[in-house]
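job 3f2a | input accepted
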Amino acid sequence: MTKTSRSSYHDDLQRGYLPGKAVTWIARRRWGLRMMQRFAMGPMVGNTIDGVVNDEIFIPSTTTPGHSIRARVYKPKEAVGPLPAMIYLHGGGYQVGVPEQAHAFFEDLLQRRNVAIVAPAYRLSLDGHPFPAGLDDCFDTITHMSNHAAELGLRNDKFIVAGHSGGGGMAAALTHWIVDTGAVELAFQMPIYPMLDHRMETPSAQFVGTAIWDKHTNALAWNNYLGHLNGDVPEYASPALRQDLRGLPPTISWVGTVEPFKDETINYMEALDAAGVPTRFRLFEGGFHGFEIGAPKAGVSLEAIEFQGSAFADFYDLYL
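job 3f2a | predicted structure (320 res):
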């Protein structure tokens, strides 16, 4: 267990130290997570992005009769289809969150390239839906995107899979599943500071007191998602378990140095490199978990936002 201090943070992020620790304290508790979902995430549902097409669809589940998946669809207004399509999976440790929380990210990408973004409100572990319910919803979403591409105005090839934090882990798991099954053709994936490894054995996974997310919040999230499995964890539940990364699509990621997911993100990207997968990666010194969201105007946050947006545009041009 490693305690972190204010001096560990980038100078641009010093203001976020105490507010970030408060979020970490709240996220260590189930009642705190429920408060976050109800009072922080809940009011975002239905929000729109100015200047783009904002639609909502409902996708029938193939695994749970009677269940449908709410998904938001965003497109540039002036774009002529069929458009390249991204499935985006929101963060929240597999346990909380809504698609609308990522509007700033969507808006940035939509300004850079013509792309359709489909973001499902997949089932959450805090609502009593642990693995594999959320991942099943994501797989159903991307297969629906493929099967109904014409009516949605999407290309039926070279899909992009993206997500941040728990959504980044979900993006990696979904990518692995798609590659194994050949369900759709992928262009590239963007698992950003992803939650990949339930074992929590790396040095950074021992960080305590880090802003937004630390060892204790991480342990609770993994227990909510996988506790029912009694230790028999498949690789789609914890993507770091995958041994053979050959054949995975080009990958973009970044992570800060002061957060629990640092080492598992680096390990994943290095393993992809070793497997011959094209990658684009940055490590941001002194960055806590989700710092570009918590402090979006900080200099280092603007660097991170520009890196992920520019990398997206480069990979779009290269692989689409």
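job 3f2a | Residues 12 and 299 are 6 Å apart (CA to CA).
job 3f2a | closed
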